[in-house]
Design brief:
single chain, mainly beta, Methylamine Dehydrogenase, Chain H, four-stranded antiparallel β-sheet, disordered N terminus
Length: about 425
Amino acid sequence: MKRIMMIMALVMMASTAWAQVSLDVVWTDLSFGGGTTNVAPSVAFNRNRVIAGEALGNASGGISVHVKGYNATTGNLAWDDILDGSSVFVDASGNDAFAAVGPVGGVLIRSYAQRTGDIQWSTTVALRGARAFAVRGNRVLVAGNILVDLGNGLASLNGRLFVLDRATGAILWSATLDALPVPAIDSVFLDFDRTGTDLIVVGQRERLSDSSNTLILRDYRVSDGHLKWERIEPDRVGSHVELANGFVYVSGAIDVAPGGGFITAYGLANGATLWNAIAGITIPVFTVSDTALFLAVTDPFIPATSAIQRRNPFTGALIWTVPPAEPMAEVRGIGVVHGYVVVVGSLVPRFGNQQLVVWVYDEHGNLLFEDKREEAPSAIFLDHAIQGSRIVGVGGLSGLVGGAFVRMYQLQTGVQP
């Protein structure tokens, strides 16, 4: 393992006339186990702990999963749990941290004491792999798929959702998105979110004969799994869902010509469509609050390039859209910090290395600055988390000085230019 501790104050303003803010890198941890796989795909930030999930290779070709707890202020590693596996999701809430590790005979769900890393319980659920994982209130949620033998040499994937008791790890109930009684159809759950008594899950059915897709949106009662309502949207793939303002926001891509990315708002009470907007090729990520909806839109004219939009969360009306800071800029995450829009991603040139990059916009879409750092054949953010004015990003860097990285940023406001 290589460890880099950096306490920096790197003021990166594109124009002193725009805003009095600075972006500081507080600390970075870089881990390399060996082999070709060294990435951090998941992170959570709660109180004074950063919980990171890493998949680190070794010289013999194997991969181990590390679930790590960092001191959020200093970057010191407080604890590290090493498990067999190749994929990992993490989350944190209250005094607890959680991980979902797969796929070794199913997906292992584990609860830790957040401060010390002591294991509180472990439960294995019957999934080939996890697609989404989260802790919401007193429930631990995980979605993925299972392989079902249809006979006569045929098999299909069925989406599967498990809801666990947060205190004990006991499985309270599960639900299945089946492939229907027609062969050659796969079904998967892709994402979920919870508010109050509602657990909203988005998934899809894919007909393998023609690759056509159908979006499935369901509202389960979180206490017992009762299906409250379901929406079926042909020719759509929904990749991300968030709950806010009594709305269900779903983004994804339209599966038929002329195609395009979509974001749709449904009513939480009954699933009725409230508004629908089409933009770009896909809408890979978005974030929503009670006053604004910010989203990344893949540019239809420059593939692998993302523009940023702000929309009214109640009507979907476009407020502004800004082109990418530069060509071949791919957005991987978006969030709001004290009214500023923070975007993490990579520059993906047609030739040469990738670069990690963070952009900061004001609420009117003005680009305040960008922070470019490491170059590598592959340099990518895979997840981020925000608490207060601090942003932690994780991902992977390939090459001789590469590895899984965990990086803490601080957004400072009120700094005089």
